[in-house]
Write a structure and sequence with these properties.
- Helix content is 33%, strand content 20%.
- With 465 residues, it is of the alpha/beta class.
- The strands form 4 sheets. Strands 3-2-1-4-18-17-16 form a 7-stranded mixed β-sheet, sandwiched between helices. It has a 6-stranded parallel β-sheet with strand order 6-14-7-8-10-9.
- The longest helix is centred in the last third of the chain and has 21 residues.
- The chain is globular, with a radius of gyration of 24 Å.
- It starts with 8 loop residues before the first strand and ends with a helix.
- The relative contact order is 0.17.
- The structure holds NADP nicotinamide-adenine-dinucleotide phosphate.
- Keywords: FAD, Flavoprotein, NADP, Oxidoreductase.
- Belongs to the ferredoxin--NADP reductase type 1 family.
- It catalyses: 2 reduced [2Fe-2S]-[ferredoxin] + NADP(+) + H(+) = 2 oxidized [2Fe-2S]-[ferredoxin] + NADPH.
- Its EC number is 1.18.1.2.
């Protein structure tokens, strides 16, 4: 039996999205016979990761999650250090010197690759990049080329629905959200009339969820268009619709939309297509040779198991922009191994593994960089719990930092001239954004709760001011 340690366990968590905050919160609440001292790092001055930079602004339910995360951080027992880029400002060696354990919760933020000809044409966009733009991510350009009248969105997950909804909704209906000014201006000028969403499998195999699907019908002056030939169900689909309530609900909603006349003469249409797989993004001719002018899809048919096979029949859709929303993918974390196929840090239940598959003492992962970009935000909690369980099991062997004082890492950041920010800094930025919302409300008829600050340097200045 090991005796209780004489100083708190120093833990660094890299990434202050839901995975990082849940991991910190669960450890502080876990039954243990030692103290903990946690630093939660993020490369941006704002916390919340994909909650701030990955969820569509018109999703009111995120407010509840933000409130819960805020409450955790506002308790004051977890130290937030924003504006610190792991791998650039601090290395793994630095962290090893200052912390006994490190949890990586860096998420998955880039678009999965789609390998079809034409994917690099002008007008072919990653869905995750577009999400970053409309969510005011500081690292994407302020301007987004919204010049297409007809747009394709590839994928049948919730991101595809978010992207399609944001592209088709009228900008004025988004003013009540926290969209930045540049996003409002960009969407306001968009000439879009038709947004086509393509699923490669059938209506019973969609990955999106019922609430998100129903939300599509709430956009004003946007008609939903469905096609009878896409409503094919094989044995596996019928079985799924009979046994899985979620699938049953979605097939029901889609089928109702198909049979009810959805044509209200709206100025914009959102088309939902199924059983079509992208084959090629087509280029224009002459002056438009480098630009998207269409999308070639192959019609698919169900093979009895819920999977699809090609029919050899192709359909070309005239579109001037293509958004690929076929899933997120992780990125390598400097100093650690990386599973390129899954886009995750190789790990066993959250214990980071070396090249030979052996756990590296003191290194852990949680969230999407641990398990891949699947599941709703709530699932991240269970995942964090598993990682914390491993850490608690390993704890007798952890205490290893040579320089564990809380001030030591601050001294290091300052000696390197890193403009780190704090929780108090985030509260200032938060207040500033709410103030911008109130000011905008004063001059118009729409109540704006918040207007996001986008440039990173402004975020840092306001936080440190
Ligand atoms: P996702 O749920 O994995 O959906 C990816 C979609 O892309 C699937 O329909 C998939 O089809 C399709 N796809 C993959 N490769 C393709 C290819 N080569 N050609 C054509 N289609 C392809 O991913 P996601 O939409 O990025 O969402 C990630 C996670 O975040 C999900 O758990 C999602 O629920 C969650 N999320 C939730 C919300 C929310 O509002 N609640 C919002 C955003 C994201 P197959 O099924 O045939 O593979």
């Amino acid at each position: 039996m090991t005796s209780a340690p004489t100083r708190p366990l120093r833990l660094a968590i890299i990434g202050a999205g839901p995975a990082g905050v849940y991991t910190a919160d669960l450890l502080t609440k876990a039954e243990r016979d030692f103290e903990v001292s946690i630093d939660l790092f993020d490369r941006y001055p704002a916390p919340y990761g994909l909650i701030r930079y990955g969820v569509a602004p018109d999703h009111p339910r995120i407010k509840g999650i933000v409130k819960a995360l805020h409450k955790v951080m506002d308790r004051g027992d977890i130290r937030f250090l924003g504006g610190v880029d792991f791998g650039t400002d601090l290395t793994l060696e630095d962290l090893r010197e200052h912390y006994d354990a490190i949890v990586f919760s860096t998420g998955a933020v880039r678009d999965a690759d789609l390998s079809v000809p034409g994917v690099d044409l002008e007008g072919s966009f990653g869905g995750a990049d577009f999400v970053s733009w409309y969510d005011g991510h500081p690292d994407v350009p302020r301007q987004w080329p919204l010049t297409a009248r007809e747009v394709a969105v590839i994928g049948n997950g919730n991101v595809a629905l978010d992207v399609a909804r944001m592209l088709s909704k009228h900008a004025d209906d988004l003013l009540v959200t926290e969209i930045p000014e540049n996003v409002y201006e960009g969407l306001k000028a968009s000439p879009v009339t038709d947004v086509h969403v393509f699923g490669r499998r059938g209506p019973a195999q969609v990955k999106f969820t019922p609430l998100e699907l129903r939300e599509l019908a709430h956009s004003k002056d946007v008609d939903i268009v469905l096609y009878p030939e896409d409503f094919e169900f094989d044995e596996a689909s019928e079985q799924l619709a009979a046994t899985n309530n979620q699938v049953k609900t979605m097939v029901g909603t889609l089928t109702n939309w198909l049979v009810e006349d959805q044509d209200s003469g709206a100025s914009r249409r959102l088309h939902l297509h199924f059983l079509q797989q992208p084959v090629e993004i087509l280029a224009g001719e002459g002056d438009e040779a480098g630009q998207v002018a269409g999308l070639r899809m192959e019609r698919m048919e169900l093979d009895g198991t819920g999977n699809v096979k090609g029919t050899g029949e192709y359909v070309d859709y005239p579109v001037q922009a293509v958004y690929r929303a076929i899933g997120y993918h992780g990125s390598p974390v400097p100093g650690l191994g990386y599973d390129e196929l899954k886009g995750v840090i190789p790990n066993d239940a959250g214990r980071v593994l070396d090249a030979s598959g052996t756990p590296i003492p003191g290194l852990y992962a949680s969230g999407w960089i641990k398990r891949g970009p699947v599941g709703l935000i709530g699932h991240t909690k269970g995942d964090a719990l598993e990682t914390i369980g491993c850490m608690l099991e390993d704890q007798p062997d952890l205490w290893s930092a040579a320089n564990p004082e809380e001030q030591a890492v601050i001294d290091l950041l300052e000696s390197r001239g890193i403009e780190y920010t704090t929780w108090e800094g985030w509260l200032k930025l938060d207040e500033h954004e709410l103030g911008l919302g109130a000011a905008a409300t004063g001059s118009g008829t729409v109540q704006r709760e918040r207007v996001k600050v986008v440039p990173r340097e402004d975020m840092t200045r306001i936080s440190r001011g």
